[in-house]
Amino acid sequence: MLTMEYDYAVDVAAQKEESLEEGIRIGEKRGLERGREEGREQGLEEGIRNLILNMKLSPSQAKNVTACAG
Questions:
Q1: Which of 5, 15, 52, 59 is the most buried (most CB within 10 A)?
Q2: How far apart are CA 47 and CA 53, in angstroms?
């Protein structure tokens, strides 16, 4: 029968590494979600700007168009 000696330092190091990896995954997920939100907002702003410039709409008209579309 094999017996192994418990090494507290190795256990703590493994737990730290696992926590770090989990933290990285969580951070990446939050970053992607935030990037999508910011991209969506930027796209909306650009859409409103284009409607105002290209279609000669007032800002309130452009916002109404984008609100209905989105």
A1: 52
A2: 10
